[in-house]
Structures are given as C-alpha cells and as structure tokens.
Amino acid sequence: TPEINRYFYGQISVIMMMICMSIIFLPWIVDSFVQKSSYAKSLKYVPYVAVIFIFRTTRLYFVLPYNILKKMQRLTVLNFFVSLTKIVLMIGLILKWQLFGVIVSSALAYSIEMLLLWYYLKNDYTMKFNLFKLMIAPISLFLFVVGIEPFFGTPYPILCHLGYALFCAMLLWFSYRNELKLITPSKLFKIQ
Fold this sequence. Notes:
By secondary structure, the chain is an all-alpha fold. The protein is 84% helix and 0% strand. The model has no long low-confidence stretch (mean pLDDT 89).
C-alpha cells in the first residue's frame, strides 16, 4: 500500500542520513575518547561497513511480503542459498582482499538476495514502488561512497565525508522535492 511504501521510503532515508553521520562522527569519537590503537586502525573500514546497511534496510521491503503471505518455506530456501553463496564469496574474496573481501561479499550477497526475493514473489504479490526512492537513491549513495573513499578518504577524510553527507542531502532533496513543497513552515510551529 502507499502507506507501507512511505514507511519504507522514510526508513531508508533515515538510514542514509545515519550512515553519513556515522561516517563523519564515528572516527572523531574514536579518536577523541578511545585509547586503543587497534580501534583507530579499523576506522578506514567504517565507510564501507556503514554503506552495507543500505542493503540491509532495502532488503526488509522485499522480505515483508513473504511474512505476510506466510511463504516461510520459500524464504528459508532463499536464505539458505544466499547464506551459502555469501560463505563461498567470503572464502574466495577474503583470500584475495582480506577484510575488504567480507565487505564485498556482503554487498554482493544482499544484492543477489533482493533480486531473488523479488523474482520469486512477483507472481504471488504485486509490488508497486518508487524505484528511485527504494533502489536508485540508496544504491547511488553506496556507489558514491565506495567509489570515492579509496582515493580521497585517507588524504582528505573530513572533506570527503562531508561530501557524502552533501551528496546524500541532494539525493534526498531530489527524492522528496514534491513532498517538501507541501510543508508550510508557519504551520509547523503554530501552537493550537
């Protein structure tokens, strides 16, 4: 329904903003308050791990109908196949890229899972959604972070991470520009 879609669009938007905020503030918090150097070494992975949550959130949209239609057997089989695929990808990619192999295998597994969830449900359940809000905007943020971070994340972390937040804000503004026109600032703060 449109109401359920709005809920998921809002959830994805909030997660996109939280991802950008965690990329900006988590390194600062760790640098300021944590004394162990091993945590500081792991900070370079924060942007990559954070953007994986985009897929986790979008995945929920495609899992919900399986629960509603009580197609748990099909969901179990798909989860087993995706988990097996993720394990195989991890083994292969960890040997090649170490921790980045885990990140890449997670992103690939979530992508495969969403495609399979949609494919095996499309005949039983009609899904009508805004492709830009549900898929294109979150994937664009994911690709932007993954594409920029290796080149500019280490030499210019603050500028780079603020750029992610700006890019996210532009995506969300474009996604919700029609809804934002309906907001009247004077009515927001009017006490009745």
